[in-house]
Amino acid sequence: MEAVNAPLRFWDGPLLAIESSCDETSAAVLLGRRILSNIIASQVDLHAQWGGVVPEAAARAHIEAIVPVADEAVRQAGLKPKDLTAVAATNRPGLVGALSVGLTYAKGLAFALRLPLVGVHHLEGHILSTLGCPEPPPFPHLCLVVSGGHTELVSVEEPFRYRLVGQTLDDAAGEAFDKGARLLGLGYPGGRAVQEAAESGDPARYALPRGLSGDTLDFSFSGLKTAVLRLVQKEGSALKVADAAASLQEAIVSVLSERAVRAAENLEAKALSVVGGVAANRALRDRLADHCRRSGIGLFVPPVELCTDNAAMIGLAGSLRLAAGERSPWHLDALPNADLPGPPTPEGVPGGTSA
Ligand code: KG4
Ligand code: ZN
Q1: Which of ligand 1's atoms lies nearest the C-alpha of 174?
Q2: Helical H runs in 148-189?
Q3: Cα separation, 202 vs 229, whole angstroms
Q4: Is the peptide bond before 189 cis (omega within 30 degrees of 0)?
Q5: What is the mean pLDDT of the segment spanning 271-279?
Q6: CA–CA distances in Å: residue 215 to residues 176, 284, 292, 310
Q7: For residue 355, pLDDT beyond 60
Q8: pLDDT at residue 280 above 60?
Q9: Which pLDDT score is estimated for 104?
Q10: Pocket-testing residue among 25, 175, 177, ligand 1, by greatest number of atoms within 8 A of Cβ
């Protein structure tokens, strides 16, 4: 990977960004790459009663939150709606009902204020979230995207130029934390609960599978969930929950860090970024820091508020696309699935073709 260091061009007026692809309603205001506000209303308590995100309930909760959250983002930025110059919103991939709420709000506002609108790919938001850090990674770099819905290794040549080099074949890493936590009776969402329970546990106490072996850069976490279920059934009341949590965390962290560092070495990448909700995991951060130090790779992990779903990262991606001339049509769709995007097109983005 040869270093490219062309200056990035951001949209230079106040930009409102909206994110509602899953269970966080978020709005942010950016000025260039500067994040003036980043409001996040989490639905975690709502979905905890069902042990996972219920799409219909998520959409309804976004409807209740979107207006106050967006108003607060503009207010905290010290602005009035009339000061805004563009709107960006996640339109893909995600829960369609949830996405539609944020996207419809964004369209309505952009239409009323006569502002340009751009639809943003949620994963591109995560990948570019590091641009909001005081010290962003250089391009090109390798990015490990680890969230509740995604586990992907992406070679990032520069913004808009992405190449998928590895991905999960079944469950995402965050899902493995969440499902494991549920089996261990640790509640929802599972990532933080497993991390906390693991603090006093022995990661070598229970042997859990690592999924795929060999030189693949793909991941598989579904066997881990089954193994935790068997462990819980076999041990019954003798199960040491802290040890099981530590063993589960170790199984996930060791695979993620081994693959990410091997991919970076294969691609001769000088830098590795780790983004998405699971990047908040302390054990993962420590393990990667250790591996990267030994391999001479720079490690870049955003602060937690830029790791979990948030509108600031959508604003960063949207800002670059708007500055490059991309505009979305009013009939832009919300899409459940979508490949990583390519360079901007003035004609809009995927999801803008069916009126
Ligand atoms: O990026 P995110 O907020 O939403 C998605 O796009 O999915 O990621 C949520 C995921 C959940 O699976 C949650 O359990 C996990 O991130 N997570 C963690 C931690 N904090 C959140 N996983 C491990 N350790 C954590 N500290
Ligand atoms: Zn996400």
Answers
A1: 12
A2: 173-183
A3: 19
A4: yes
A5: 97
A6: 22, 21, 19, 34
A7: no
A8: yes
A9: 98
A10: 177
Distance from C-alpha of 91 to C-alpha of 184, rounded to nearest angstrom: 35
CA atoms within 13 A on the CB side of 233: 6
What is the C-alpha to C-alpha distance for residues 77 and 95, in angstroms, rounded to an integer?
Answer: 29
- Give the count of alpha carbons within 13 A of 278, CB side only: 24
User: pLDDT for 292-315, tens place per residue?
Assistant: 999 999 999 999 999 999 999 999
Distances (CA, A) of 175 to 96, 156, 182: 19, 24, 10
Tokens describing residue 352? 């803008």
Name the region of 243 (left: φ>0; alpha: ψ -120 to 50; beta: rest). Answer: alpha
CA 148 to ligand 2 center in whole angstroms: 7
Interval between CA 269 and ligand 1 midpoint (Å): 26
How many Å is the maximal CA-CA distance in the chain? 64
The full length of the chain comes to 355
* pLDDT band, very low/low/confident/very high, at 7 (cuts 50, 70, 90): confident
pLDDT of 188: 84
Residue nearest to atom 16 of ligand 1 (CA): 277
Question: What residue type is assigned to position 148 of the chain?
Answer: G
Query: How many Cα atoms are found within 13 Å in the side-chain-facing hemisphere of 159?
Result: 27
Is 151:173 a contact under the CB 8 Å cutoff?
A: yes
- In the prediction, which pLDDT does 45 show? 86
Helix (H) or strand (E) holding 121: strand 117-121
Between helix 96-113 and helix 55-76 the angle, nearest 10°, is 30
Q: Is 59 left (phi over 0), alpha (psi -120 to 50) or beta?
A: alpha
